[in-house]
Write a structure and sequence with these properties.
With 474 residues, the protein is an alpha+beta fold. The chain has 3 domains: 1-270, Thrombin, subunit H, CATH 2.40.10; 276-362, Roll (Pdz3 Domain), CATH 2.30.42.10; 375-471, PDZ domain (Pdz3 Domain), CATH 2.30.42.10. Helices cover 17% and strands 34% of the residues. The longest helix has 12 residues, at 253-264.
Length: 474
């Protein structure tokens, strides 16, 4: 049965502090009777939709024999006597939480909860266990979708998502999960902050901060509003000792909604593309641009023919908000664009020459132009051992590249101890030129690798700086 249908039947005064209530209805409890109100009816309705997740993986570990650990032999033969023993398979398990978001057993959790899993078991509130398959795991957002096996003939209780942007600082929320594997646990708190960036948990760093107690094992669990809807997925805590200190972070539900929508379209890891690069407006930039406060993103480049270009956004513009939501920094802009739904028309507010413009922004997936041409470089050259590809908007979105260029050859992987590794090449480096020849694509780089002899004069773009080095030669 739908959770909201159950909630509507509960006559509870606590609805007065619902995060979706009007400003006139939201108030502080004013009597002892109201302070004694209970979350129990709400918990009974929503808790069955929160599940425990057991993630198992098999690893190979060496087991030393008994002689190799004997202090007597070690005394005479030294540490070199402790040679490794036989390889044995060991099963490691980790615990986390998840939320059922569709009656057919579709579950949302954190990507790190099921990372490297060989087998995933879902434990429902009635303690029944089911195996689950990974529908999609997205490390960039730290979200994953699981599908319970064999759920075609069963309708599970699930949580409906509401718009996490409707939450306000001070609103009450519940956190439900399985901390430390002790079993399902409910904690309460308030929204401490919205749009918290700079946390560094995922590539799209934009979180709901709460003071609800969250501990290891809560990851992937539900952050629930007072109307029984899912507003976030509990993801991380700020802690120096693995314990809860009242600073917890949840991924907003609008990002979960966007991931589910992309899976429904058959594009599981596709995210909307802006087609522009930018930088956060700092106080100095704000003064020079005549902005009333340091907020927004200064556009430093626009891709020809991309969504931003077709919307009329120009280099030098400052994006202030998207769809009515403020864009205070570059992280906020990336999140706002990534959480849009395809085939919609968004609206952007742009500051240009002292005036504010409203522009219609098409929402569409990034193109893979040029094709990636994934290539492993071998031979005797500074790039040997590197895997490279043509940089395109689609590849940028897929691997989480946030550099200031959308063209060139990007390094995706580097083999340990290879020539490329010794040279210092890193994933996400962009190879710009070799011996003054501009590297526009993989074909150009491979031609240079075959024909150029030492010394190698190489230019690499790393983040916001260019590194130049001369390799080989006398």
């Amino acid at each position: 049965m739908h959770i909201r249908a159950l909630i509507s039947r509960l006559v509870i005064v606590i609805a007065l502090v619902s995060p979706v209530a009007s400003a006139q209805e939201v108030r502080v409890p004013s009597s002892p009777a109201e302070i004694q109100l209970s979350f129990a009816p709400l918990v009974r309705a929503v808790a069955p939709a929160v599940v425990n997740i057991i993630s198992s993986r098999t690893v190979l570990e060496r087991e030393p024999g008994p002689l190799f650990n004997d202090p007597f032999f070690e005394r005479f033969f030294g540490e070199q006597f402790q040679r490794p023993g036989l390889l044995r398979e060991q099963t490691r398990s980790s615990l986390g939480s998840g939320v059922i978001v569709r009656p057919n057993g579709l579950i949302v959790t954190n990507a790190h909860v099921i990372r490297d899993a060989d087998e995933i078991t879902v434990v429902l509130s009635d303690l029944s266990e089911y195996l689950a398959d990974i529908v999609v795991a997205d490390p960039q957002t730290d979200l994953a979708l699981l599908q319970i096996q064999g759920m075609t003939d069963r309708s599970l209780l699930y949580l409906e998502m509401s718009d996490s942007d409707d939450l306000a600082v001070g609103d009450l929320v519940l956190a439900i999960g399985n901390p430390f594997g002790v079993g399902q646990t409910v904690t309460s708190g308030i929204v401490s902050a919205q749009a918290r960036t700079g946390v560094g948990v995922s590539d799209f760093s934009f979180f709901i901060q709460t003071d609800a107690a969250i501990n290891p094992g809560n990851s992937g669990g539900a952050l629930v509003a007072m109307d029984g809807t899912l507003v976030g997925i509990n993801t991380a805590i700020f802690s120096r000792d693995q314990g809860s200190h009242g600073i917890s972070f949840a991924i907003p539900s609008i990002m979960v909604r966007a991931l589910i929508a992309s899976v429904d379209r058959g594009m599981p890891l596709a995210r909307p593309w802006l087609g522009a690069q930018g930088r956060t407006v700092d106080p100095d930039l704000a003064r020079r641009l005549g902005l009333p406060r340091p907020a927004g993103v200064l556009i430093t480049g626009v891709s020809p023919g991309g969504p931003a270009d077709r919307a009329g956004i120009e280099t030098g513009d400052v994006i202030l908000w998207v769809n009515g939501r403020s864009v205070d920094n570059i992280d906020a802009m990336r999140f706002r664009v990534a959480s849009l739904l395809f085939d919609e028309m968004a609206q952007a507010s742009v500051w240009r020459a002292g005036a504010t413009l409203l522009l219609d922004l098409p929402v569409e997936p990034p193109p893979e132009v040029p094709p990636r041409e994934l290539t492993d470089i071998t031979g005797t050259n500074p790039f040997s051992g590197a895997q490279v590809a043509n940089l395109s908007p689609a590849l940028m979105a897929e691997v989480g590249y946030h550099g200031d260029t959308e063209t060139g050859v990007v390094v995706l992987q580097v083999v340990d101890r290879s020539l490329a590794d010794r040279f210092g090449l890193l994933p996400m480096d962009v190879i710009q030129s070799v011996n003054a020849v501009t590297v526009t694509d993989v074909a150009t780089l491979m031609r240079l690798v075959r024909n150029v002899r030492p010394p190698w004069n190489v230019a690499i773009r790393r983040g916001d700086r260019t590194i130049r080095a001369v390799i080989g030669g006398g």
